[in-house]
Give the backbone structure.
Amino acid sequence: MAIESQAIKRPAPFAAGVVGAAGGFLGIFVGASNGSVLLGILVGFVLAAAAAFVAMQVLDEGMERPFKWGLLGLITVGGVLLGGLPGLILGAIFGWLFGWFIYWVGMGRYRVPLPPYLTAGQVLWHYSFRMLCGVIFVFLITPILVVMPLSFNAQDFFTFTPEMLAFDPAGYSLKHYKDFFTSTEWQGALRNSLIIAPLATILSVSFGTLAAIGLSSEHVPFRRAIMAILISPMIVPLIISAAGMYFFYSRIGLQGTLLGVVLAHAALGIPFVIITVTATLVGFDRSLTRAAANMGADPVTTFFRVQMPLILPGVISGGLFAFITSFDEVVVVIFVGSANQQTLPWQMFTGLREQISPTILAVATILVGISICLLTVVEMLRRRSERLRGMSPG
Amino acid sequence: MSTLKGSGPQTFDGPTPDDALHEAAALQGRDTEPRHGKGKAAPMLAADGTPLKKSLRRALRAQKMRALLLIAPLLIFILVAFIAPIVDMLFRSVENEIVADTMPRTVVALRDYDADSGEVPGDAVFEAAYYDVFIAAERKLHTRLGTRLNYEQTGVSSLFRKSGRGLDDIGEVYQDQFKDLDGDWDKARPWAELMGDPEWIADQEAWDKDKDGSMPRFRLAEGISDLLPRTAEHYRIFARFAQVEEGDSPLKEEPWTAVHTALYQDLAEVDVSSYTGPGAERLKAADALVASPGFKTVNFKEAFAEIDRGWTEPAIWQTIRLYSPKYTSGYFLNAVDMEKTVDGIGMRDENERIYGLLFKRTMFMSLVITGSCILLGYPIAYLLSNLPVRTANLLMILVLLPFWTSLLVRTSAWKIMLQQQGVINDTLVWLGLVADDARLVMINNQLGTIIAMTHILLPFMILPMYSVMSTIPPYYVRAAKSLGATNWTTFWRVYFPQSVPGIGAGSILVFILAIGYYITPAIVGGTTGTFISNRIAYHISSSLNWGLAAALGTILLAAVLILYWAYDRIVGIDNVKLGG
């Protein structure tokens, strides 16, 4: 049993210093938006340090809850005075944050989740590292989060308008969504995407699953070479695939046809199907097919009644990968397709290059919604198959 | 969160024919070993009486066949839909048939031309060029050839375009004189009767567009090509062109002026007095006209010079000669900023070298992107692999969501955030950290491309790193610490070396993806942040220099394949992991 770390109350000047530094950091921004950075740092430091000192030194421990509420109220009021409605929300957030932070530092609660033998430096490093990772996560997720509120912009701007920042309902509207659902161009593009992607998915899943089953049997001559060829569409840069397909498909008359685009997208989706299905087949217990054969099932029955239900999660996630590959693909469709095969990403690409309208943002938000759904399905399938694999022998 | 592992070594509980085969061989080997003078033991038999070894081998072969049959449809599909286009592109990067196909006579005539002499070639070359360009102009191919040669020498394109129109003048001089002599020389029917086989004329007359399908193929009259070789050749070309390309009957179409030129050339050389076929009188009269002193002739070389002085400079002839072979390294040389000149292969002028710069920039930026992905991805992968599974799964969503989000959504998000009136600049201005008139330029340059692509490729770095790091046992680190190593030493000497395979796998993957990127640089890269792929796209869709696009693509492909090979050696292709 590990020794639990205890939260030990820290000296008040320590808490005041740390919280004051945080206050000073926040003061940079508040000060900058109100005219003077230096003043902001100073005031921030003094206020935060004073609050921490009061909480730690003057008040006794039972006063934690009232103090936190009081601080939240004070900072919120300050925020309203400085910045109106946005200030209110930011103030409330920071008020809560500071209340929590003062007690977290002052009472030594930061020690609790860590082993007791760590030195102060190690504790500092631990939390700095967490902060760093937090920043990177913010970097990863912010672009996606920024797009969503902007898509409700009432203006044709690609940035937040003052009305939006003031949370004025007039600053928001659904007009970009209305644009998307009424414009014939966008609807045509959506329809094309919804025709091409499923067709390509069906092609790559049916060929890919068969081949993956073949590849997973152990006596395959040239297995490595075959695998290299089948995975190559994923590795070869898209622009090269696109160029090659453009030249070749115009020679054989497929350029600018729906069939050409579907074939091209199916080829691009195949590596994903191969990878996911072979991964699923690793955990497949082969004695099941032998048992089925033993009991008189022909290979087709064995495949559909025994093998397929077990590898289905892998096949479906492979299919979803293939679907999203085709649904997202721009480069190849631009070259292989013609205006009649204009897909959603193509339309977005032209929109972005020519800066036509923020309808793109509405489309982007819808696409993010779709990818969240797909991600959820794939994760659920993956966990299910892991659970099944964990239970089945071999 | 464990990963989807590739099909690594497979485990089989049951016996397979292969195992049995080895076993049988071993058994038999022991049995057949002549020991103590014993005789050879009988081979083991299967249930149906065939030797066990044979029957097992048959079973193994059947299994192999079945596996291959399952793979075959996909393999064929990929070979046709994907590999064939790539091979076609490779072929296009060296293919150069257009010069020899469009100007066959000129290419032959130029064979004896000494390109180093600095002189304009002789009349024979100009004569050949006249017929070649004339026919090419009728087929509307001369501008294509001009465009092709323009890649090698600027100005050729307009030269060919002008000449296509201007060369008619030469033939018209002869046409007019023959026409003045006898109006039949400008009529379709008399020409066809003079040149065509009578049987063919009968066939062609009987031909009905709606009933018979394609026209009867034009045939020359017997002996006419011995008598009037040039005229026969060019009339035949004209007739076939009219039939096939335009669907017109040569009986109703008057021939090109080039045929009149050919007729003049023939009549000036041969004697037609023995000719007795149709139109003999007309031909003899024309012969007399040509022999008469008042007959106007045109010198080919002068006519060309009149159309454009460019034809009298040796450069154009040198270029045609240099690019006459069916295969050329010209595109590749061009792709590495070199060119073929009369003196051999040399670098282009300093101000024309762009591809070397582009390749270097692509490499450099890909390296920077890979580097920043390592820097940002390593802490995340470390954190995820050291957190409790539940928390790690939750945080993993933050990595997987960008991975699953459409590339265009992420690119457009970055465009919105980075532009001068964008979210980041607005925030900075609002905070007062940046003056309103000094907004940061973060887009349409290298910085924009690097930021956006690092974000887009980061999941490809984190996922392989994570899957390697989550297999590193924690007790090495603990052991190192308990032996007195400092934090840094523990990390650097114990943990880091074990995580290097993950860094390697992620880096190669990110680098491969980065050097071929097209969409993101095209949108946020401006002019200084574009990659070689953007140039390839430009050559395919705007400048239409497909050969150069193919050559650039081939070089890029070679680089990627080397990396792919390295990836295969280090990680194994079938260990590529997707998601989680």
The longest helix of chain A spans residues 64-106.
